[in-house]
Specification:
This protein has about 200 residues and is of the alpha+beta class. The protein is about 20% helix and about 35% strand. α1 packs across α3.
């Protein structure tokens, strides 16, 4: 007789193994060189595209991080983006990241100075808006349903009213680290995998 606790433990192990696959390349930025982009000349490295003074620096959690800083420009925002392929249309995915305040030059924010976008940096393409005026890392996440086999995930700081749908501009920059994108497994699939594993276990005995 298989105990209930053993079944639950097996499901837990399988859930961890399935959900742990990170589809983002170099999400911790450790293998990337330190340096920034300039407007019109992106920094392209390790699967990432850094634009508008965005780049890689220390100040990570730990080690290196992405620098979402464009020196207060009201014409463009600093962005770090990556196109992720191999997605299943209709499947749910979770994006998770660590972020913290880098510098708050404006003195106060709009509450929407940081954003995560899907495919284009528009209000319609936004998955997440937020603001963090504390220089310690916090982890956040958001989920989306894939409508294509590939999507571009865009992280942006110093958002202005033209990109966040809010009022006013902002000069609040951020550090970004430990970016992950993984599929959210369906409970029925996990249970099926767990029973399959149990069946194999007892067939070997």
């Amino acid at each position: 007789m298989v105990s209930r606790s053993f079944v639950l433990a097996a499901i837990g192990v399988l859930f961890a193994s399935v959900s742990a696959q990170n589809l983002v390349l170099n999400g911790d930025f450790e293998a990337l060189s330190i340096g920034n982009s300039v407007p019109g000349t992106p920094k392209v490295e390790g699967g990432w595209i850094f634009e508008n003074y965005c780049g890689v620096e220390t100040n990570g959690n730990p080690g290196k991080s992405s620098r979402l800083e464009s020196n207060g420009s009201t014409s463009f925002d600093p962005t770090a983006s990556q196109t992720v392929s191999g997605l299943q249309i209709g499947e749910t995915y979770t994006i998770a990241w660590d972020w913290k305040l880098r510098v708050n030059y404006s003195g106060s924010g709009t509450g929407r100075s940081f954003g995560v976008f899907l495919d284009d940096q528009t209000y319609a393409g936004a998955l997440f808006f937020g603001e963090r005026l504390v220089a310690t890392y916090v982890r956040s996440s958001i989920s989306f349903t894939a409508t294509s086999t590939s999507h571009t995930v865009i992280f942006a700081g110093e958002l202005d009213n033209r990109t966040n749908g809010g009022a006013g501009n902002t000069d609040v920059s951020y550090n970004l680290d430990n970016v992950e994108l993984s599929a959210v497994p369906e409970p029925t699939s996990l249970i099926g995998l767990a029973w399959g594993a149990l069946a194999l276990r007892f067939r070997k005995k």
